[in-house]
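During the second year of the project, the team shifted from modelling isolated chains to modelling whole assemblies. The rationale, set out in the original proposal, was that interfaces cannot be judged from single-chain predictions alone. As a representative example for this report, we include one of the complexes processed in the last quarter. Its constituent sequences, exactly as entered into the pipeline, are reproduced here:
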Amino acid sequence: MPLCPGTPTPAHSTVTETHVITTTGLTKVYRSRGREVTALDGVDLHVREGEVYGVIGQSGAGKSSLIRCVNLLERPTSGTVTVAGQDLTALAGRGPRAGKELRQARSRIGMVFQHFNLLSSRTVQDNVELPLEILGKSGKERSRKALELLDLVGLADKAGAYPAQLSGGQKQRVGIARALAGDPKVLLSDEATSALDPETTRSILALLRDLNRQLGLTVLLITHEMDVVKSVCDSAALMENGRIVESGTVSELLATPGSELAAALFPLDGEASGEDRTVVDVTFQGESATQPVISQLARTYNIDISILGAAIDTVGGLQVGRMRIELPGRYEDNVVPIGFLREQGLQIDVLGHESVLVKEGAK
Amino acid sequence: MTWSEMQPLLEQACWDTLYMVGWSTLIAVVGGLPLGILLVLTDRGGLLQNLVANKVIGQVVNIARSLPFIILMVALMTFTRWITGTTIGVEAAIVPLAVGAIPFFARLVETAVREVDHGLVEAVQAMGGNTWTVVRKVLVPESLPSLISSTTTTVVALIGYSAMAGTVGAGGLGDIAIRYGYQRFETGLMWITVAILAVVISLIQFAGDYAARSLHRRGAHAGPAPKLRLLKAAS
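Output from the structure prediction step:
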């Protein structure tokens, strides 16, 4: 296992502090035959310009409703949605039909779908041209743009093929090219890789990452796969029962003691070997990952340290290491060495002492 | 009856049938297509959800479909006179044929359009398309193979109905079979008419299936292409 991480890739190269998608108090209640189901229960989401933001949750957590409320395919019951400075909920108008202004706003938001949703009666190129037809572009302009986009997603040679002749990964590339046709600032991805095998998933995620970097495209994706968040997201939010229970940039999350998302992004195993032992999870990020803290700790305090588990991985472009170590003696006996580790700028979680940690994390 | 006697009769009958069925199919498609699409759009969860309109259209279609054609023809006589100025002849037969076929075709259109994946509708909405865009770019093109099959079924049904058009003096193959073959015991002529009808219907079915299949193969999305039904009798 490489303990010396390579050069970390710049994580936030395109991210600015401007919020490009904001939802406030977003609520969605479905009513059917007198029963009410609350899919979204006061969701506040802030997606910064140029970042890849992942919303993760189990099925039924409300993530699908959330992403469909962002371009108002679902009309929220209450709350507001602002995309690129425009309050979409104010444009919505009455009734189930979308007014002209909302439709124009939608054409500037790209969307890719789990099941691709390509028209089987049209060729690949014609599928990519569809949004341009809706925008009323001329034939020449449409085909120029479509071919350019197909080239961008690596499918220039498939322009004349029909979707039925493509593999799942290729179909999703067409879906992405189509979503980009209107030069959107924002791309919504509704489980775009959930119907794909792991290898294809990786290539599609890499493509999304590249587009995010090259075009400064903001991507809001929903998924139920932790690996998706791990490999492409700058920020993430965890949804449960229609609420966002945790959110932040990946490094913030990893630095949050007791974060469920951080633990899920980076699972560690290992049980304490006895009663009078203290188990500590140490998280390294960036600079601190290179320091020989464990040997320093052993030398300074003359204690024996057992390593129960350790891993180094790249999460959202950040090199992160995590280690679960065991110190002899109870927590009370190890306050000083743990303090030492904290001083080194490491994030320390002591197992079984979450209440203490949450208090400390809060300040 | 000799062949030289039969030939002009049969020729005229073929043309009459073709003329009646051709026009009434055209009218049925022009009228039934929007009606069928409206049935889908106005239904619960549809883009133009309007349950009252949906119920009304649905009921009208059901009533029109439940009337036996021969009754419909008589019931529509006033309307037919108002449109064509007469209640007898080929032109007069086209009116009840078309009126009878519109709801028939509309139901088939409804079924075909309902099969279109809702995800495609959503994709077009997400691009900023309106309801008309959805109809034009998604619902019709994506259900085209089924729509062609539905048209074939309608043509075959219309050939069957047109046999009854003889009662208003419109002629056609079915009329010949009844008047000469059945009522005057010209068994030979009857069998020739039946043979011609069988061939015509087979050809129409074959052409329709071929068109639907070739479109389907190109799109080849889900499920097998509709099977060839070479000898589907007129209903």
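Chain A touches chain B at residues 71, 73, 96-98, 103-107, 109, 111, 113, 115, 117-122, 130-131, 133-135, 162-164, 178, 181-182, 188 (CB under 8 Å). Chain A has two domains: 19-254, 267-362.
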